Structures are given as C-alpha cells and as structure tokens.
C-alpha cells in the first residue's frame, strides 16, 4: 500500500511541476538571464583585489573606465563575477556612493538579458524607471541599462545584453 501511495505522490508532483512550468505566462518570463556580476564599491582597490587574490580567485588588473567615472577590477568565480568599483575622476558616481558608505559595499547587481531593447521596453511598460533614455556600452563592451533602485526593492540593477 505504501508503494502505491509513493507512485501517486510522485505522479502528482510531476503534474504540479509541469503545470507550474507551462503557467509561466508573465510578460517578463524568459527575459532575465543569469546573474553576471555583483558590483562592490571600494575605497581601497588594491586592498579589495588582494583580499580575493589571497582567497585564490583570478583577479583582473584595474581598468580605467573614464566614461563611467570608475576603475573596474573583475574577480572571476565559477558561476559569476564580482566587479570591484573605485572612483575615477572628480564626477565619479562611486565617490558619491563612498561618501555615504565610507567602507564601501554592494553597489549593484547585473543580470544578463537576451535582448536589451526588449528588456528596457518591458520594464518601462511595468512602470520601472531606467537611469537614462538610451542604453550605454558597459565595462564588458556590451549594451547596459540601469534600473532605478526605488523601483527595484532598493537595489540598483544593471541589465546587460548577453
């Protein structure tokens, strides 16, 4: 009797899994891809880079990104990256962040999308504000758009073309 119950339980859980998958008709379903990176603003780029190097991570050299007002360092992880951000120039948005957060901290998360223009249109249609009218080329040489943190649960989100 117990084995018959197990078969029915297994059959019902399989039905639930199939019905849940087929019910993903949300307009943004399939829009978001994998997590590309978590960005951390740091007042001391060398110290932060050394921290990850000492843990055995592959850490890039600092790259100036004058058009974005930052230096970037990428820490490669098996399933994602960490982007270390440090101010570059007097008008750096990272300096403004560090003025409020002296020790640094998480600045934003970056999520890949299969079609950046479609993603921007979709989020705007949902009332989510973007920080800019047009996409820009980000640190990876791909089109990006930032979403307003007040519309995203207090988190600055960067969408990046796959």
TrEMBL record:
Domain of life: Eukaryota
InterPro entries for this protein: Glyas_Bleomycin-R_OHBP_Dase, MeMalonyl-CoA_epimerase, MMCE/EMCE_epimerase, VOC_core
The VOC domain, residue ranges: 34-162
One function term, GO molecular function aspect: methylmalonyl-CoA epimerase activity
Record's catalysed reaction(s): (R)-methylmalonyl-CoA = (S)-methylmalonyl-CoA
GO biological process: L-methylmalonyl-CoA metabolic process
Coiled-coil portions: none
Entry EC number(s): 5.1.99.1
Keywords: Cobalt, Isomerase, Metal-binding
Pfam families in the cross-refs: Glyoxalase_4
One Gene Ontology cellular component annotation held by this UniProt entry: mitochondrion
CDD domains found in the cross-reference section: MMCE
Cross-referenced PANTHER family: METHYLMALONYL-COA EPIMERASE, METHYLMALONYL-COA EPIMERASE, MITOCHONDRIAL
Function comment: Methylmalonyl-CoA epimerase involved in propionyl-CoA metabolism.
Similarity comment text for this entry: Belongs to the methylmalonyl-CoA epimerase family.
Alphabetized NCBIfam families for the sequence: metmalonyl_epim (TIGR03081)
Protein's recorded name: Methylmalonyl-CoA epimerase, mitochondrial
Gene name for this UniProt entry: Cre-mce-1
């Amino acid at each position: 009797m117990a084995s018959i119950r197990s078969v029915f339980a297994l059959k019902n859980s399989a039905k639930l899994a199939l019905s849940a998958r087929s019910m993903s008709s949300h307009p943004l379903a399939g829009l978001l891809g994998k997590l590309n990176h978590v960005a951390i603003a740091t007042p001391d780029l060398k110290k932060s880079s050394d921290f990850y190097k000492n843990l055995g991570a592959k850490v890039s050299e600092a790259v100036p990104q004058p058009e974005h007002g930052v230096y970037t360092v990428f820490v490669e992880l098996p399933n994602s990256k960490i982007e270390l951000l440090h101010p570059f120039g007097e008008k750096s948005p990272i300096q403004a962040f560090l003025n409020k957060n002296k020790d640094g901290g998480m600045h934003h998360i970056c999520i890949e999308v299969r079609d950046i223009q479609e993603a921007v249109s979709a989020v705007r249609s949902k009332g989510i504000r973007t920080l800019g009218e047009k996409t820009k080329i980000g640190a990876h040489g791909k089109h990006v758009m930032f979403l307003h943190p007040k519309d995203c649960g207090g988190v600055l989100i960067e969408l990046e073309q796959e």
